[in-house]
Amino acid sequence: MTDDPDAEALSSPDNHAGRDERPLDPRERFQRAASARQSADVDPESDLWSGSYSHLAMLGVWIGGAAATVAAVVVGLLASLTGAGWMILLACVVGLWLVLGGWYAYRRYSVHYNLTTQRLIHESGLLWRTVDRVELIDVDDVTYRQGPVERLFSVGTIVVNSSDRTTPELHLPGIDNVREVANLIDDARRKERRSRGLHVESI
Fold this sequence. Notes:
Layout: H1 5-10, H2 13-20, H3 26-39, E1 47-52, H4 59-78, H5 83-110, E2 112-116, E3 119-124, E4 130-135, E5 139-145, H6 148-152, E6 155-162, E7 169-176, H7 178-196
């Protein structure tokens, strides 16, 4: 204990607190706000939607294949093909359907989509797997496109444009209920941006 009142006043906690309280410059206010934002509780990542290539997405192709088959039979009848000619024609038709079936099976079982509250994940490939992960906060725009047949069955392709350097434009073909899924992705990206956004003008 000291008898000097001036020394006692200088060493008091209240006096130190008063000396430390000074106006912060904009940079320091930004850093403090960013630290507070980062230290806040973050909602855990959860699944919002998952899907794969829809069987309805190739209806237009199936219709084209059926039309080509009927046309081949008509040509064969009009040309009065012999047995060998019919065998060649049959081989062509079977080959066409094998190609279409193989292409559908590949897309059906090699393409998978998953949307979470923070990311959009696109997996493709059977033997060699490619996985694209796009952070929703990086997504700039979500659009979708449909052909005439696809519109009848509410399927289509979603196109995601983002600032991601590896996947600036991500195509998601064969999506069932394409309008609803596109809106879901857009709503999720808006919510993620609002939850993580830091507005300089509010600091």
